[in-house]
Fold:
Amino acid sequence: MLVPKVNLKYLFVLIVWIFVVVGTVYVFNFIVIYDPSVYVGGGDRSKTALIRDYLSSGQYNQLVDVANELELLVDPMRERDFNEVVRDIETKVPFLPLDFWARQTLIGRKKMKPQCGKFPSIFELEISNDFWQTQRSSNGTYQLFGAYLDNRKSNANDQWYIRILGMIDRVDTHLPMFCQIWYDQQEKPVIVPLEQYHYIWIKSWGNAFNGEYQPYLLSCPIPWDHRHLVPVSVSLAEEQCATATNNLKVMYSRPLDNKKKLFAVCVKGLDFLYQDLSVRLIEWIELLGILGADKIYFYDLQIHPNMSKVLQYYKRLDRVDVTKLTLPAGKPNIPGLQHLFLSQRLYQKRQNEIIPYNDCLYKNMYKYHYITLLDIDEVIMPKRDIKSWQELMEMISEKVDHGSPLPFPSYNFRNVYFLDSHHRPDRTSPDTRDIPEFLHMLQHTNRAAVYSAPNEHVKCIHRAERIVTLHNHFAMECLQGSCAANEIEVEDAQLQHYRSDCVTTVQRKCDNMTEFYVPDKNIYKFKDELIKRSLKALHQLGFLKPKSDTTISP
Ligand SMILES: *[C@@H]1O[C@H](CO)[C@@H](O)[C@H](O)[C@H]1NC(C)=O
Ligand SMILES: *[C@@H]1O[C@H](CO)[C@@H](O)[C@H](O)[C@H]1NC(C)=O
Ligand SMILES: *[C@@H]1O[C@H](CO)[C@@H](O)[C@H](O)[C@H]1NC(C)=O
Structure:
């Protein structure tokens, strides 16, 4: 009985001793493994911890040793040479003749000093707000935005022009000016008198005062003996031989095979700095894609970073184009201030919108048959079983133009409001159950019972071949005859306008349009495709995040 008792006692001591030894080794190992000073060669985490330790303990000597072994996350980009910088600017500022200037600089053209009309160096131009070139005259200041070669066959007498787009602080001016047209391989500019000022505004619309910038298109005729050459750039000068402070690259982008696509959509300068309309924008871009818009041309004044992300995404897919835009001269371009200005100076806002609309027309007139100007809350919706804009235009051509050699230059679509207050969500109907709540247009399928009056708030599809100048709702000047647009019957198509409230000059009409609404489910023709495409884009852009994610993390 005694032996097992002694054994038990020893056993107990032995067990305790083993525990102590094992425990000590374990703890020691732990310290060895995790002691940062013994682990300098370890992963980034431990190095970061090391740096933290050294910083807090003030051991800067050791810190330097560790820091020297770290990788510095700076941009490895190297300094660029002259030509590389020129390429870089060209991608951001379309209307500087940089390439031409660079070549002139290299061949030393400036030294030739022609007698009349010196080629102004880019450094001598008066550039304002990045995208405008200023020319002062004896009567008014010119803010020039773009220049385009117009050799459309529809021009009267087959005359070719350089069209210059810009703003002048004079109403309906006729001041004589000269266009100095530069060609590659030619020492001297070809100088022609400016033929015409096209005022792209109507005085009675408002803000038509000298001293306020007004939108214009200027036409410089191309001499017949120079039609075999493509002009490179143009300057506008009051004195024939003066050195101008402007020099605009002449845009001429005809597709190589001369094949036109069908539809370009132009969107005026976006001013959505404080509003994230990303989801609305995605649904709109996708719906226009389904309807057959080949590309959407956006102008960007100031937008929310999320909307930029959306536009960049579609730009990579080649479905949109984005041009950065500013207001000219001393007008505000400070984020926020610009937004206040545009919301409180409505006429100046409208006058400025003329510039992107016409730039979009002239940039695209050789690439597309049709140009249409839309806001991101508007859709030209084909009715009945018409499934695309192409089908719609084929139907219209047959019905309206009867194969006429001179079809209408534009077709206008009646405005009808889909107001937020018309919305009656119904999650039980089998029709709507499968529509995501955040797809605005698919959700809003009630519209005002009455259409806006004919010509009121309409939008057009224009034949690019026929238009000289455009404003938001109509063409102002056309080639080959009258500019009258054909009004499309509401049985065939309508302009769906998604707004929170109605806009007309007559309050009684608005009350009527707000109060009386009817269902309109034309958009359901595209329902499945639109849901699929929108969700795909929303997902790929990272807009869809499980709600539970916010509660999982401690
Ligand atoms: C300057 O231009 C404006 C607008 O065209 C015109 O009304 C005015 O008479 C001109 N002034 C002079 C001095 O020519
Ligand atoms: C609303 O306007 C339409 C067209 O102007 C008219 O026919 C209708 O009677 C109006 N409804 C009311 C209740 O005023
Ligand atoms: C949109 O903007 C918000 C606020 O800046 C940001 O938290 C969110 O991540 C953005 N969404 C996407 C998809 O980038």
